[in-house]
Amino acid sequence: MRWLIVILMSWGLSACAATGRNAAADAHLRAGMAYLKQNQLDHAGRHLKQAFLAAPRRIDTVLALGHWYLSKERVNSALLLYQEALSWQPMSGVLHNNYAVALCLSGQHHAAERAFAQAKRLGAQSGQQNNCAQRR
After folding, report:
1. Residue whose C-alpha is closest to residue 109's, from 131, 94, 91
2. Measured over all CA atoms, what is the biggest interatomic distance in the chain, rounded to whole angstroms?
3. Quick check: 27 and 62 in contact, CB under 8 A?
């Protein structure tokens, strides 16, 4: 009986910690997005990195941090982030789309076209594909 109480207490504490991490991630994500809209990239970056540290497997956090990387012209960082996220969320059309945009910006046009096609197959809408094709 004592072990059951210990297990339940451990589960409850880990659930509380997860809730706390999500609340922190939410707050940092909201702040980071607000700073991005104001083009205050340094402030945005601090908050988005904190959101990512609190919840590294949240798609919204990955997308926001990836957008920040691209805003800072850190295309390789965005590519690595999207590749990592796609390893655990391969059926996300929006991740494939954002990865395609980063590939396009890095000059990898053929790979970008394939990623855009995959995003479309998965139901993501994209207005960036034509821009990538025009940059060639």
Report:
1. 131
2. 68
3. no
Give the chain as a 3 state SS string: CHHHHHHHHHHHHHHHHHHHHHHHHHHHHHHHHHHHHCCCHHHHHHHHHHHHHHCCCCHHHHHHHHHHHHHCCCHHHHHHHHHHHHHHCCCCHHHHHHHHHHHHHCCCHHHHHHHHHHHHHCCCCCCCHHHHHHCC
The model carries a pTM of 0.80
**C-alpha 76 chain-centroid distance:** 14
- Give yes or no for a contact between 101 and 70, defined as CB atoms under 8 angstroms apart: yes
Amino acid at 58: R
**pLDDT given at position 22:** 81
Averaged pLDDT of the chain: 84
Nearest-angstrom CA–CA distance, 95 and 128: 13
124 or 70: whose pLDDT is higher? 70
